[in-house]
Give the backbone structure.
Amino acid sequence: MTGAELMPLLHLFLLAVIQGITEFLPISSSAHLILLPKLTGLDDQGLVIDVAVHVGTLFAVVLYFWRDVSLCLSGIPRLLTGRIDTPGSRLAFLLGVATIPVVLAGLVFSLTGLDDAVRSVAVIGWAMLVFGLVLYWADRRGASVKTASDWTLRDAIIMGLWQALALIPGTSRSGMTITAARSLGYGRQEAARIAMLMSIPTIIASGALLGADMSATGNVGVMRDGAIAAVFAFAAALLALSLMMRILRTVSFTPYVVYRVIFGLVLLAIAYR
C-alpha cells in the first residue's frame, strides 16, 4: 500500500481518536479537532467525518451508561403524556430541559456566523486557560454531597446554561457541565455521570444538524471513511470514558486542569507570536 493510500487512513484515525478521547474528557474535543488542520496542514475533515465521529462517541456513552439510558427511555412514554412521576420520566424531562439552552445557542451561533468567528487559535487558547482554572476552582471549592438522584430542575437549567457556553471552542462541553455540577455540590463521579448523560441528547442534536448540512451539500462520497472513523471514535471514546470514571474514584480533575493551562499557554504563545 502506498503512502498516498495510507495517509487518508492515518488522517481518519487521528481525527477519530482525538474526537473519541477528548469528547468526554474536560479538555475540549472541538478545540483539538479545529487545531489539527491548523497546526499540521492536513485538510479539513468535512461534514461526513464530523457526523461519523459524533455517532461513534454517542454509541460509546450509551453503551457505558446503558442502565441510565434504558431508565430514561422507559420514562419517555410517560413524559409524553405529561406525567413526571417515575425516575425514568423525571430523568428524561431533566435531560430535555438541560439540552434546550445549547440547542438555542447553537442556532444563534449558526445563523449569525459566530461559530466561524470563534474558531481562532487565540480564542481557543484563552478558553482552554480561563475555563481550566474555573474547573479547578469549582472542583476544589465544591462539596460532594449530591448524587445523580438529587438532580433537580434548577440544577438542570444551570448546567444547561453552562453547557451552552461550550459552543466556544476550547471551553469543553464536558468540562463546563462538570464545572457546573461540582459548583452545585455533586461529587466528582456523579458530576461526570450527569455530564455524560447530558452529552447524549446534545450529540444527537449536533449530529442531526451536521447531518442536515451534509444532506444539503450532497456530500455522500466518503461514507466508507465515515464508517471507519465512527468505529475508531467509538473505541477511543469507550476507553477514555472508562478510564476517567475509574480515575475519578481517587483523583481530582487537577491533571486535566494542568493539561488545559499548559496547552492554553502554548496556543496563546502561538497566536500572539
Q: What stands out?
A: The chain has one domain: 13-271.
